[in-house]
Amino acid sequence: MIIPGLVSITFRQLSPLDILRLAKQAGLEAIEWGGDVHVPHGNRRIASAVGRMTREEGISPLCYGSYYRAGIVNGLEFSAVLESALALGAPAIRIWAGRLGSADASLADREAVTADIIRVVRLAAGEGVRIVLEYHSQTLTDTVDSAIDLLHACGADAPGCLWQPPVGSSLAMNLASIEKIRPWFAHSHVFSWHVDDRGAVERLAFASRADDWRQYFQKMSAMPGDHAALLEFVRDDAAEQLLQDARDLRSLLSILNRR
């Protein structure tokens, strides 16, 4: 089954309570709470309060969207991230695979990122929490081949993947990517963007890419277990757009989930 949800940083300007009210109105069932604004890293009091409010609304605090970058010394300790996730009651923590794209990372860079991923996966697993990688540019998950190399290098301690369509990639490339990371697939970040010839990105309504997402979701729905489709970066950062996108997303998922 695929569960409709929201990435909280879609609305950084709103409070957690306002986001919950909006998610409830939109009929969404899960939230990835961001560690930069809504649930700050290491603040157990806020994390506990947001987790409680989320569950009271009947919504799952599905993931803690941290800004921890594996293999990078930047002042953010993983202990603070794990502490917040546990207080929030999130079963998964999002991290980033370094800060260099695969074309720029040296072997030493890759080894440092891999070793740190293994370390945090083991720490989180000891608390019953799963680590998932942000599937993102300027990290070692910027291409599917690099992501798979990284996952294989982690061996039995491989994390899951938060998949999203790379900006400017084709439908065929994205379908192949989903199939290749199938063993590690966790959830998806859902957005609809158009990239023009100059590289400028325009946010679109979900409906404008609904046929593409239908095909992505078909592959996801064939995988065992539940997966979340988390709406992110809606057009104009508008609450009204989220409500429309959520209606279209839920309509599409209701058909797939019945199969």
Q: Say what oligomer this is.
A: single chain
**Biggest sheet record:** 8 strands, parallel, barrel
Amount of helix = 40-55%
Order of helices and strands: EHEHEHEHEHEHEEEHEH
Corresponding CATH architecture: Alpha-Beta Barrel
Kindly name the structural category: alpha/beta
From the 3D structure, determine the CATH topology: TIM Barrel
**Spatial ordering of strands, largest sheet:** 1-2-3-4-5-6-7-10
Q: Enumerate how many helices there are, as a single number.
A: 8
Cα radius of gyration in angstroms: 17 Å
User: How many β-strand runs?
Assistant: 10
- Tell me, what is the CATH class? Alpha Beta
Q: Termini separation (Å)?
A: 10 Å
Poorly predicted runs: none
User: What overall geometry do the principal axes of the alpha carbons give?
Assistant: globular
Taken as a percent bin, the fraction of beta residues is 15-25%
CATH-wise, what's the superfamily?
Answer: Divalent-metal-dependent TIM barrel enzymes
What's the average pLDDT?
A: 96
How many domains?
A: 1
